[in-house]
Amino acid sequence: MSRHERRAEQSGEGQQRPGAPALITGATSGLGRSLARALAARGWTVLVHGRDESRCAAVVEELRTAGGTASPYLADLSSLGEAAELGRRVAAEHSSLGLLVNNAGVGAGRDARRRAVSRDGYELRFAVNYLAPVVLTHALRTPLRAAGSAQVLNIGSIGQSPVDPDDVQFTRRYDGMEAYTRSKFALAAFTFTIAEEYACDGIRVNCVHPASYMDTTMVTEAGVRPWSSVEEGTKAVLHAIDEGVRGSSGQYYNASRRAKAHRLAYAAETQRRLTSLTDQLIAPTQDAGGTVW
User: Fold this and answer.
1) Is the pLDDT of residue 293 over 70?
2) Which domain holds residue 204?
3) According to the UniProt entry, which residue ranges have a biased composition of type Basic and acidic residues (predicted)?
4) Residue 40 contacts by C-beta under 8 Å, 6 or more apart in sequence?
């Protein structure tokens, strides 16, 4: 048993406060929408995040019609300011949060040579897939702590490439797939960086690769023939959530198996450098005095 799991056990394994909702980013299609249905069926109040008002409303209506409880939350996570505001709004409206699933993401894209940027001018995949989850997780730490036994689950990928600290914005020899795998490496490293500290608050933090090339818009837009289904990915995510309820923290799952992420994602020096770089990039969205991981 890891140190994370021992601390989680001591805090009261599986005792998530009834009524503490779950926030799922990117919940208007694909894996996020499927997970929203599954969690609502389990009795969770689901906070449905999306960037399109009508699609958000459609998912909320679908969940309510099926007997669930849901509310819409709009934000464009290509803006770190909007990611921070989403966190502040959720924290203001919900004193506790039982689960945060950082699912929203941008894939490799159809044209691997086309380097896109976020609204803040950062490389798009790094911004949406990594920086936005960092900002949102920071903003929601207080309501997660208040739940008593909450979880943060980062939707990662088996594809992981170390971030180049001298070219974080990937301005040289750009490749869309590598930009994607760099962002997922960073997300895994973030998971392991905060897991020990967040365990002190009774918050379990894990990362899961749900399935390879699911039948999602992200995959089809990249011109890839799907290898697996959203249903398979949903089962893997639910397994990771159940593992968190049982006390697992600081872990990486490949589908429904505990696995190992890229070896450098665990390295203290890698985590230190990435934390420092990240703090500089997200500083404009944070309160005075710097960030606290």
Assistant:
1) no
2) 3-285
3) 1-10
4) 46, 63, 66, 68, 69, 70
Residue 38 lies in a domain: yes
Least-confidence region, from 38-42, 69-73, 221-225, 259-263: 221-225
> Could you tell me whether strands 69-74 and 22-24 are parallel, antiparallel, or unpaired per DSSP bridges?
unpaired
Q: Please give the average per-residue pLDDT across 159-175, as a whole number.
A: 96
Distance CA 208, CA 159 (A): 12
Q: Determine, yes or no, domain membership for 292.
A: no
- Report if residue 260 sits inside a domain: yes
180 is catalytic: yes
Q: Model's pTM, two decimal places?
A: 0.90
CB 253 within 8 A of CB 237: no
Using a 10 angstrom Cβ sphere, with 0-12 exposed, 13-18 middle and 19 or more buried, the burial of residue 239 is: middle
Residue 237 contacts by C-beta under 8 Å, 6 or more apart in sequence? 31, 35, 101, 153, 155, 208, 210
Q: What CATH number did the domain enclosing 17 receive?
A: 3.40.50.720
What would the pLDDT profile of 65-111 be if each residue is shown by its tens digit? 999 999 999 999 999 999 999 999 999 999 999 999 999 999 887 88
Q: Which two tokens stand for residue 175?
A: 């490749």
Catalytic, out of 180, 198, 252, 253: 180
Neighbours of 46 (CB within 10 A): 28
**Distances from the Cα of 30 to the Cα of 33, 84, 91, 105, 109, angstroms:** 6, 24, 26, 11, 16
**Distance between CA atoms of residues 233 and 154, nearest Å:** 13
Q: Which residues contact 190 (CB under 8 A, 6 or more apart)?
A: 130, 133, 134, 137, 154, 274, 278
Task: State how far the Cα of 215 lies from the Cα of 13, in Å rounded to an integer.
Answer: 34
- C-alpha 42 chain-centroid distance: 20
Q: Provide the H-helix boundaries in 17-119.
A: 30-41, 53-65, 80-93
